[in-house]
Amino acid sequence: MRNLIRRIDLTTLRLFVAVCQEKNIARAAERECIAPSAVSRRIAEIEHSIGLPVIHRESRGISVTPVGETVLRHAQDIIASIERLTAELTQFETGAKGRVQIVGNLSSIVQFLPEDLAAFQRVFPDVDIQLEEQTSHNVLRYVEEQDFDLGICNMIPGVERHEHLPYRTDHLFLMVPRQHRLAQMPAVRMEDFLGESFVGLGDEAALTRLLSQQAEARGATLHVKIRVGSLDALCRMVHVRLGIAVVPQHIGELYINTLNVRLVPIQEDWAVRRLVVIFRQRERLSAAAASLLNFLTSRE
């Protein structure tokens, strides 16, 4: 059974599927516009390659053996995969058109989406994109209740209600003023900075909820001295020493050369967050939305 990929081609698999569906070699041959003898020869090639019968020839047709049922299942998967590939390549050839509505969380919009959408537009210039920012929890609600094609959010409870695919990995770092006691640490754990004054985002932000949950798990409460509405403002508040903050790595790196701040890695499992793309049903996506989904989820 070695090297089946070299012995069984796509045409042979397609003809075998036709025979199994029609339960008759002659009808399968007629459907596929080929001589029955050629179909029989292809079936014989499969049986020779695997060393086991895949069909039983009977007076009024054929029956599929247990081995044949296994081959049939995989053959259908292979053919379906090739058909999906053809559809996706056709989109590149003809150019998907239309409008795609996306709702994303702050982390995805600030860190990853600008470059990814710019690259997508170079390939699909005729697709218009509407992008709205919401918290991760609201991203779920918008995809469920409104006409948004795709949502991008953290892997939070509720994501499992939707079809979803991995998008990016988001690493959290501690941002402190350069003169702070933790500024020269190679890495920190939450216990190292739990008693500090924080600059934070709003209560609904996924990052705020995450930090509060981690503090509560340690029997503590975060001392949030000031709350702001954006990651840009968050970094600037640390710059003027109003507190420390936990920020996504890519955001912090934008400011380390322009603000009086340092980034320190956080050595905690919770400091590595998965971003996912969610959607209702893949088969119901427009060609434009499907193209964008494929583009985003193949770039990490």
How would you describe the overall organization of this protein?
The chain is built from 13 helices and 11 strands. With 300 residues, it is α/β, with parallel strands linked by helices. The chain has 3 domains: 4-94, Arc Repressor Mutant, subunit A (Orthogonal Bundle); 98-168 and 274-296, 3-Layer(aba) Sandwich (D-Maltodextrin-Binding Protein, domain 2); 170-271, D-Maltodextrin-Binding Protein, domain 2. Helix 2 crosses helix 3 (25-31), helix 2 (10-22) packs across helix 4 and helix 3 (25-31) packs across helix 4. The radius of gyration is 28 Å and the shape is elongated.
**Helix/strand class:** alpha/beta
Kindly provide the name of the CATH class of the largest domain. Alpha Beta
Q: What's the helical proportion of residues?
A: 40-55%
> How much β-strand is present in the residues?
15-25%
Q: Helical element count? A: 13
- The CATH topology name of the largest domain reads D-Maltodextrin-Binding Protein, domain 2
Do you know the CATH architecture of the largest domain? 3-Layer(aba) Sandwich
Mass-distribution shape: elongated
Give the overall pLDDT as a whole number. 89
- What is the count of structural domains? 3
Organism: Candidimonas humi
Domain HTH lysR-type: 8-65
Keywords: DNA-binding, Transcription, Transcription regulation
Protein name: LysR family transcriptional regulator
